[in-house]
Design a protein that fits this description.
243 residues; alpha/beta; 6-stranded mixed sheet; 4-stranded antiparallel sheet; 10 strands; globular; binds adenosine-5'-diphosphate; binds magnesium ion; ATP binding; ABC-type amino acid transporter activity
Length: 243
């Protein structure tokens, strides 16, 4: 079980995360929904230490890290155990698909070149891009780039996989291929937190859905509970997707 406790984060005078906490069971798929600006990305970024939280902690495998006083070793522990899939893919443009996947295996996991390459090829096969291994991001469609992004993240075998609106930068016709891949990896007993505006999708794949509002968890429940919730803010938010 992963325990996230009391994350606080301000940018200047603006308090963006107000004591957010969450327990995630092993193998659990938790989706995070909420309006733009409610703090969803910041929440994931703090977990991955891309952003330094002002307070709060995370416990993975009984090791607890306090975000605001994490030392080098603890930061490396977080990077080793969490991996992020970004809305904008965030691939290295000067590296091929294969090299993008190898990068974290080499620099974070310290795996030798041959093994890293082997693993990259295996993962490219998994995401159906074996024939694109030596292509650069600019030579790939958005959907293909994101599938490389997902392969790169799962290559790290993270204890917690974080996905931040993985399909919102894609042309509509490319969304399906990426959602299908996410659905596939969600079924593999991975522990994941996924921020998404694909509500129907979230209802289908999630064990639990968190609704964030103004830097707090406003409502949390199973997909069924979310659908039938009487929470006013949540219903107002869901309604905007039904039009
Ligand atoms: P969401 O992902 O839910 O749309 P974000 O976490 O991106 O929300 O942003 C939450 C709030 O924090 C917003 O008001 C945003 O403008 C602010 N914010 C996010 N990142 C920064 C930053 N690096 N510097 C200043 N303000 C930021
Ligand atoms: Mg965001």
């Amino acid at each position: 079980m992963i325990k996230i406790r009391n994350i606080q984060k301000s940018f200047g005078d603006i308090e963006v995360l107000k004591n957010i906490g969450l327990d995630v069971e092993e193998g659990e798929v938790v989706s995070i929904i909420g309006s733009s600006g409610s703090g969803k990305s910041t929440f994931l970024r703090c977990i991955n230490y891309l952003e330094k939280a002002d307070g709060g902690s995370i416990e993975i495998d009984n090791s607890r890290v306090g975000f605001n006083r994490a030392d080098k070793k603890e930061i490396s522990f977080l990077r080793n155990n969490t991996a992020m899939v970004f809305q904008s893919f965030a691939l290295f443009n000067n590296k091929t698909a294969e090299e993008n996947i190898m990068e974290g295996l080499r620099s974070v996991k310290k795996i030798n070149k041959e093994l890293a390459k082997e693993k990259a090829i295996e993962l490219l096969e998994k995401v159906n891009l074996k024939d694109r291994s030596s292509h650069y991001p600019s030579q790939l469609s958005g959907g293909q780039q994101q599938r490389v992004g997902i392969a790169r993240a799962i290559a790290m075998e993270p204890k917690l996989l974080l996905l931040d609106e993985p399909t919102s930068a894609l042309d509509p016709e490319l969304v399906g291929e990426v959602l299908n891949l996410i659905r596939e990896i969600a079924a593999e007993n991975r522990t994941m937190l996924i921020v998404t505006h694909e509500i129907e999708f979230a209802l289908k794949i999630s064990d639990r859905i968190i609704f964030m509002k103004d830097g707090k968890i406003e409502y949390s429940g199973t997909p069924t509970e979310i659908m039938f919730s009487k929470n006013e803010s949540l219903n107002k938010f869901l309604k905007t997707f039904k039009e």
